[in-house]
Amino acid sequence: MAAPVRVSDIDVNPGRLAVSLRGVTKIYDSGIVALGPLDLDVRRGEFVSLLGPSGCGKSTALRLIAGLNAPTSGVLQASDRDSKMRTGHSIGFVFQEPTLMPWASVRENVRLPLKLGHMPAREANTRVAEALAQVGLADFADAFPRELSGGMKMRVSLARALVTDPDILLMDEPFAALDEITRFRLNDDLLTLWRDLRKTVIFVTHSVFESVYLSQRVVVMTARPGRIAAEFRIGAVEPRGEEFRTSAEYASYCRDVSHALTPLHQGQPIR
User: Fold this and answer.
1) Can you name the residues that pair with 201 across neighbouring β-strands?
2) 158-169 pLDDT tens trace
């Protein structure tokens, strides 16, 4: 049985941290206390999933890390390649909806952040081609969103996040609306990208099964205001695949994480 780990059990060597939150809270203008106080460390190159009840602040935490919103209190830092800690630097964001421009081709949708950053055309062309190849869409560069399946649209969204070569990839339930077969395939492809590119990934999901399959660490959050209720290290051998997905080890991890999540859905504290 996998025992939950406390924050103090995690190696938090500052030189290896990609993201650090200390006492972070978010209170909206309406007075709703959405998050915190939240303490979370994510190591460079780590794949961490945030799991918890609807409305617990998982997406709010991502938006704070991305710099899309400011915390009400606390300290939040994200790292760049030179190991200095800076807020909101070198981060890619994949939203739950692909949010593609319907009038633009796949190539132009992926190029958008480079265009906004005024990158020279030659370098941008190379970056876009590489990003499309990474997500398996090299042959669809001239297609339009209306011509793509839901899974392909999400691949475009992922390519758009990767095209800037971010250090940290934030993903907010990107596969929630997809059918199970497509979701399994994209889970496998995401793990391959993570292993190849060595990005730091913070992944929000409502699925226990998805969180265990993808992650090195699953962080279970309480109901609003979101705080950390439990953490689980997923020590499965890499690379993961169908053998792990159908193994007793996987089922055991899922059972343990589900056990931690159940009282939260029932509004009870974890003992």
Assistant:
1) 47, 169
2) 999 999 999 999
